[in-house]
Design a protein that fits this description.
- Helices cover about 35% and strands about 25% of the residues.
- It is an alpha/beta fold.
- It has 2 domains: about 120 residues, Alpha-Beta Complex (2-enoyl-CoA Hydratase, Chain A, domain 1), CATH 3.90.226; about 60 residues, no CATH class.
- The strands form 2 sheets. Strands 1, 4, 5, 6 and 7 form a 5-stranded parallel sheet that branches. A two-stranded parallel sheet has the order 2-3.
- Helix 1 runs parallel beside helix 2 and helix 2 runs parallel beside helix 3.
- About 5% of the residues have low confidence.
Length: about 180
């Protein structure tokens, strides 16, 4: 008689898209610990979900969240499983990690776990004053209305600030709707 199996899939650290995990601090992100690649997790979920012996999935989460796309990608893969899934939140299950947990059939957490943190943010470093102080001049040549929006070498215009705020609002509305579902 075959035994039913549950598989544990760890999701630790910042959740990023892509297939390679950076070793060491991530540029511009306020996090220097482990990282989970959505590409690798989704590929693994697809591979093992075909195994008829596996009857349930346990997602062991210890993450402050990550990028919206990577979080959505893993949550979508969980929704497509067609098998029972449980999110076990250890220390952290916030932001994008909570989005992933909410895609599971059940969430289990310790009373001391940090859970939730529904919201979005965008950060941009502005080095213009520092560059002026040390006497560096940067000439930039670009085409496209928002092409330079990510550059730390120029101040944002009011129009660019409004554009970023609109994007953050749109991501936030989508995130909240996914959690409600």
């Amino acid at each position: 008689m075959a035994k039913a199996l549950a598989v544990i899939i760890p999701l630790k650290g910042i959740i990023i898209s892509g297939s390679s995990i950076p070793r060491g601090p991530l540029p511009i992100l306020p996090f220097t610990g482990e990282a989970t690649s959505s590409d690798e997790v989704v590929r693994y979920i697809k591979d093992i979900s075909r195994n008829s012996k596996i009857k349930a999935f346990i997602f062991e989460i210890d993450s402050p969240g990550g990028t919206p796309y990577a979080s959505k990608e893993i949550a979508d893969a969980i929704k497509k499983l067609g098998k029972p899934s449980v999110a076990q939140i250890r220390e952290y299950g916030t932001s994008g990690a909570y989005w992933i947990a909410s895609a599971c059939n059940k969430i289990v957490a310790d009373p001391l776990s940090s859970v939730g943190g529904i919201g979005t943010r965008a950060e941009r470093i502005d080095l213009t004053e520092l560059i002026k102080k040390i006497g560096i001049k940067i000439d930039t040549f670009m085409r496209g209305e928002y092409k330079g929006i990510g550059s730390p070498y120029s101040e944002l215009t009011e129009k660019e600030k409004k554009f970023i705020e609109e994007q953050v609002d749109a991501f936030n509305r989508y995130f909240i709707e996914e959690i409600k579902e």
